[in-house]
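Z., the sequence and structure:
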Amino acid sequence: MYNGSDGGISSINGMTGVVVLDKNSVGLDDVDNTSDMDKPISMLVQTELDSLGTALDFLGTELDSLDKNSVGLDDVDNTSDMDKPISMLVQTELDSKADSSAIGIDPIAAAIIFGG
């Protein structure tokens, strides 16, 4: 409490004299200085998490039975990019290009220049 005369404080939270404030004197008995990252989760939260199961339980899939079909990749294969055929659209576009022999380029020079 401020007494108003000399600028000093005569009491704090009902305490007088030399007062050392700590967490108990300001009503924070159950507070500690633990960072949020180091705090454990509550028993209530852990119980709820335990009831949820795993993501695989949610999907109804066992770990050892996971395959491309169970994760929605039915049309995917494991072909390397170098071994993949070109699409019909790309082939059509290539077919529309001029042949090197049709434009008078030496086939050996064309192979060197165009990698063919």
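The mean pLDDT is 77. Residues 43-52 form the longest helix (10 residues).

Let me know what you think.
H.
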